[in-house]
Amino acid sequence: MSLNLPREGGVPAAIKPRPRLFGLNQASMMRWCTILLVQEICVFIFLVLGTHGLITKVKPGTTDYVSFYAAGHLANIGQAPMAYNHAAHYAAEVAATQPGIQYVFFFYPPVFLLVCSLLARLPYLLSFVVFDTVTLTLYLAALRAILGAKGWRWMIPVLSFPVTFFVLGWGQNSFLTAALLALGSVFLERRPIVAGLMFGLICYKPHFGILIPLVLIVGGYWRAIFGAVISVLATVGLSWAMFGSATWLAFWHGFAASPLMYQSGRIPFKFFITPFGAARLMSLPPALAYDVQIIVSVAVAILVGWIWRSDTRPAIRGASLIAGTLLVVPLALVYDLLMAMVAMAWLVAGLRQEGLLRGEKLAFVAIYAISVLASGIAEHFGVPLGLLPGVLLLAICALRCFRKGRLAVT
Length: 410
Description:
Blueprint: E1 7-8, E2 11-12, H1 26-51, H2 65-76, H3 86-96, H4 110-119, H5 124-147, H6 155-159, H7 163-170, H8 174-187, H9 192-200, H10 212-219, H11 222-264, H12 275-281, H13 286-310, H14 314-328, H15 338-350, H16 358-381, H17 388-409
Antiparallel strand pairs: 1-2
Helix pairs in contact: 2-3, 2-4, 4-11, 5-8, 8-9, 8-14, 9-11, 10-13, 12-13, 13-14, 13-17, 14-15, 14-17, 15-17, 16-17
Protein name: DUF2029 domain-containing protein
Keywords: Cell membrane, Membrane, Transferase, Transmembrane, Transmembrane helix
GO cellular component, one term: plasma membrane
C-alpha cells in the first residue's frame, strides 16, 4: 500500500479543497493554520510560565501526568500496589509537586506501570518533558506514515489542531494511544503481525481497543490477531513478573470502583465526548445513561463492521475504526479528540484521487472549532458538542462506503 501524495508547495495536495470552500484554498488554509498555531504556542507558553509562578498564577499546579509519575515512583520503591491506594498515591503526587494539588486518580492496568516506572526515574519536570516529547514524536511519525508526506509543512495543520496543546499541557497519554491506533492501521495491509503488535499495546488503555477484535475478524486479518495476542500476553506477563499478583489484584479492585467516580461527576461531564457523558450532561440518571451508551455502541459496532466488510480502502477502514472508537467507549474526554486528527489524516490521504467533498471539508473545519468550544458550550448551555467529531467522521466513512458500493452496482 503506497500513500505517497502528490505535492504542491511542499504540502500534500490532498488537503487542497477543490472547489474552494468559502474562499479557502490550500494556501489560505495553510495561512489560517499557521496563525492559529502561533496563537496556540503563545497562549501555551503563557500558561506554562504562569503555572510555575513566573507570571501571575493562572491554573492549579497539577496535571494528569502527575498521576503517572506518582504511580511509577511507587512501583520503583517496591510499592506498586499502592498506586491503586488513593491515600498513598496522592501522597506520592504531592511529594512530586507541591501540597494542596488536586488529586488525580490512577486506574490504568499494571501494563502502564512499565512505562511509568521508567519515567519516574527522572526528576518530575524533566520526566514530564521527555514523556511529552517522545509521545508527540511517535504521534507525528504515525501521521507522517499515513499521509506519506515529506518535509515539514504538513505538520502545520496537524499541530494547529487545538487538542494537541491540551494533551501537551495536561501531560496526557493521548499521543501514545492515537499513535498506536494509527500505526496499527498503517501496517495492517503490509505487515499485519506488526500491526497486531501495535494494536495489542493498547491494552495499557484497554477500552480504546474495544473495536479492534471486531474489525480484525471481519476483515480476516488473522496474522494481525496473532500479533495482538502475543503483544497483550507479553506485556501483561512482563508487568505481572515485575510488579506481582498483588498489583493486578489492587488494579481490579480499583477498576471495579471506578464507574462510581465517572458517573458521579467527579470528572465534569462537560469534558466527556461520549454518549454516556452526553446523557449525564443532560441530567439522565446513570442507569439510563449506560443504556444510551450500550445502544449507541452496538449500532456503531454494526456500522463499523459493515464498513470493514464492504470497503477495502485502508483510508475508510482506518478512519472508521478511529471514529467509531470515540463513540463506543463510555469514557473518553476532550483530549481524546486527538484521535479525530488521525481519522482526518486517513481521509485526506486516502481520498486524494477522488477529492474531498464540500461537506467533508466543512466537517473538518467544524471539528477544529468543536475541539475548542465543546467544553465551554457544554458547561454553559448543556449541549454535548463533543460527540459530533466522532459522528461526523463516521458518517463520512459510511457515506463513502455506500457511495462506492452504489457506483459498483450501477
